Amino acid sequence: MARTRTPVVSGWFTEDAPDGGGFRLLGTRCSACTAVFFPREDAYCRNPHCPGGGELAEVPLSPRGRVWSYTDGRYRPPAPYVSDPAAPWEPYTLVAVELEAEGMVVLGQAAPGVGVADLAVGMAVEVVGGVLNEDAGTTGASGTDGSDGTVWTTWQFRPVGDAE
Fold this sequence. Notes:
By secondary structure, the protein is mostly beta strands. It contains no helices and 10 strands.
């Protein structure tokens, strides 16, 4: 069964960066003040010190950074967040990462298999593609699969080791 890969938020990341860099978060850079934004900003520069008159251009962000903070989510989110009470709850690890070149902190989940015991503040990590959820597709009246479903993709962080 073929599944459609769909970003959770369109335009926030790419699985094939234009510089051949693979998976990358996408931000925007103001040409007037060089400020970089994530999530991306397409309307105006959010920098209060910007002289104005600049253009906002899409830029791939650093593929690596350092752990700034981390924690684990051990409970099901309350309403209004969608959560199937019949599905088993899987704890997850959240990581705040200071990106290498931009110096901004981005929040994301840790890659599967990476828990709080595997992380430390200052540890080098890289951004990778991951799966947030998978829709099973629909079942038609004949009992056959009416659609192939969707794989909802997102970004995650994983340690890169101490080789740096």
